[in-house]
Amino acid sequence: MLAIQTIQDEILELKKDRRAVILAHHYQNEEIQELADSIGDSLELSRRAQSFDGDVIAFCGVWFMAETAKVLNPTRTVIVPDREAGCSLVDSCTPEQLAAWRRLHPEYTVVSYINTSVGVKALSDILCTSRNAVAVVNSIPADQPVLFLPDVNLGNYVRKQTGRENMRLWQGACIVHATFPARRLSKLRAEHPEALVAAHPECPQDVLAMADFIGSTSAIIDWCASSEAGEFIVMTESGVRHSLERRAPSKRFYFVPNENCNCSECPYMRRNTLEKLRDALRDLTPRVELSPDLIRRAALPIERMLAVK
Ligand code: 13P
Ligand code: SF4
Is the pLDDT of residue 262 over 90? Predict the structure, then answer.
């Protein structure tokens, strides 16, 4: 097996030849994050996909994020190291299911989380991410009823923050965050009584109720880095540890293992490897291909979201 450094050198060479930019989500392996031009949460990566010089976007994250980058960059080639890097939230609501839900509630405004397929985005009125979901829902007139999908935990959190009763929630969930058990968090908190708790809003309500801070992956990293505290229990995918330790090397971070894998890793995100990234840059595949009509229809709700301050 080639050494990590050798594969990283090959990737940097290919990146130059292809005039590529590497975007990496916080949940990627450390060796991938080290090569990235930009590391961020899904909102930041969507914005950065809009403003760079080059021909190819190598998106080290999951497929829906790469689809979003393609919608915002229709003339560029967008590749992902592994085509099977999916998301349980995307799988929980198909375009056909959303179309049927819309038909049942034609007067509602559809707010879709960015963790959806491009087909679902194209049927939505506006998108949101974990960072801006409260602001997006607040941008809709208070008397206008909302269909929120697909994450029930994020939906419950937004409903609480906005005080909106007129929100119907799809019952999807993230296989990682939704299975963090509150009792394991309580146990870890008892072992580290000084630690503050930072949680992603995809966590269940009993976990969120124990959090000192709730936010997107980047918001969690910013908050832990700028807080006066020295210890944190972090209720999200453990890939954020690399950015946390880079930003705050003297602080301590603890993660709660979920009940599926006894770890805090997203099995979809972790499908991407250095070898697959190198091969994708060499072969320009797996590549996101979308019809011009789908791109046009999905762009509108994404642009509406990006316009919300
Ligand atoms: P962020 O938008 O916070 O990066 O979250 C993306 C995600 O998939 C969380 O599981
Ligand atoms: Fe999807 Fe959950 Fe993985 Fe995020 S952590 S990509 S929401 S399965």
Answer: no
C-alpha of residue 143 to centroid of ligand 2, in Å: 32
Ligand 2 midpoint to CA 28 (Å): 12
Q: Is 154 in a helix, a strand, or coil?
A: helix
Query: For residues 60, 62, 63 and 66, what is the CA-based torsion angle, rounded to 10 degrees?
Result: -40
Give the nearest ligand 1 atom to 129 CA: 2
Q: How far apart are CA 134 and CA 27, in angstroms?
A: 23
Identify the nearest ligand to the CA of 47 by its number: 1
Distance CA 131, CA 159 (A): 15
Ligand 2 atom nearest residue 62's Cα: 6
Does the predicted model carry a pTM greater than 0.85?
yes
Cis peptide before 81 (omega within 30 of 0): no
Indicate whether residue 162 lines ligand 1 (CB < 6 A).
Answer: no
pLDDT band of residue 255 (cuts 50, 70, 90) is very high
Determine whether the shortest distance from the Cβ of 265 to ligand 1 is under 6 A: no
Decide: 220 in ligand 1 pocket, CB within 6 A. no
Alpha-carbon span 236 to 301, nearest angstrom: 27
Report, at the CATH architecture level, how domain 7-85+272-288 is classified: 3-Layer(aba) Sandwich (3.40)
Q: Rounded to an integer, what distance in angstroms lies between the CA atom of residue 116 and that of residue 120? A: 6
CATH code for the domain defined by 177-255:
3.40.50.10800
Q: What CATH number is given for 89-175 in this structure?
A: 3.40.50.10800
Helix axes 240-247, 217-226, angle to 10 degrees: 30
